[in-house]
Batch of 4 targets.
Target 1
Amino acid sequence: MKPLLPLEIKREKKKKFEELYSRDTVWFKNEIKEKIAEASEGERGEKTRIINEALEEYFKKRGR
């Protein structure tokens, strides 16, 4: 049997995708778009992950 938790302890509500991400329109070179598509292997959310990781690394290198 699980111990009862005090009422003060509340679970944090999981944030919705739209609360964590914003949509924008950008233009990619065709060869870059193809590479992203190949790397994502059609898995849901992989393009977003790849692009976010690349941009985080870009800004990290520039100290921003």
Note: The CA atoms of residues 26 and 39 lie 19 Å apart.
Target 2
Amino acid sequence: MDTFVAIKWTLIVMVCLRLLSGFIEVTAAFLMLRLNSVEKAIAINATLALVGPTVLLLSLGIGLAGITGKLSLAKFLLIGAGVLLIFIGIRK
């Protein structure tokens, strides 16, 4: 029963992070429209570049913490390698 409660709260926190991220994205889009400036839209878009990876890392970390007892060390290392490859792939 304790595991179910931990996973449930973990999932709720992950979902809330994603909802917050989506709200920030939609708010930024409306702000770009309201400001009506390409230069300001680029600045807002650059700021959004920080939100995506931050939410990814937070939700991934929270999710992994929630299933710590279910995964072997090898699987954790594979997940870590996958995240590292994602960041290497999107690096400028």
Note: Residues 19 and 78 are 27 Å apart (CA to CA).
Target 3
Amino acid sequence: MKRQTVPMKRLLPALALLALLALTGCVRTVGSIVTAPVRVAGWGVDKATTSQSEADRNYGRKMRKEEEKRGREERKRQKEAEKQRRDSEH
């Protein structure tokens, strides 16, 4: 009986394709590991710095709080003045 062998030229592309499919996950993992320090550094810089839009938002919030405080103080002064005026009439 003669044994049939598959020629190496036909087998090589199939093995290369299998190896490529098997290593796809490894390449992604290596890519993630390599880019991780850059992403972490970028995240740190982003957290350590304030963008212009964040600065504007924070300034606006601060100004609104100050206006609210001035409004409360003004209403309190008006109530006290009204109370003193009523007390002086009696």
Note: The helical segments are 8-48, 52-89.
Target 4
Amino acid sequence: MMQHVGPDAEENRIDLTLENLASGQRIELDANRMTQVLLNLLVNAIRYTPEGGSVRVVLEDRRIGNKDFLKSLSPTLE
């Protein structure tokens, strides 16, 4: 997915990084929909980040109460 938005980030001199802290657990979801959501978030993050800025994507496991969730994307604009 990062390869799809990489050229736009490069063109605007935006540093695009991915930090994978997830354990690799599998979750059931609609892969096409999740791809669409994540791609939209990345495109918007790059579109609204000033030239020379950075977008950081963090993948990590999260536990809320007694349920495990995967926090899939946490873009940070700098």
Note: The longest strand covers residues 54-64.
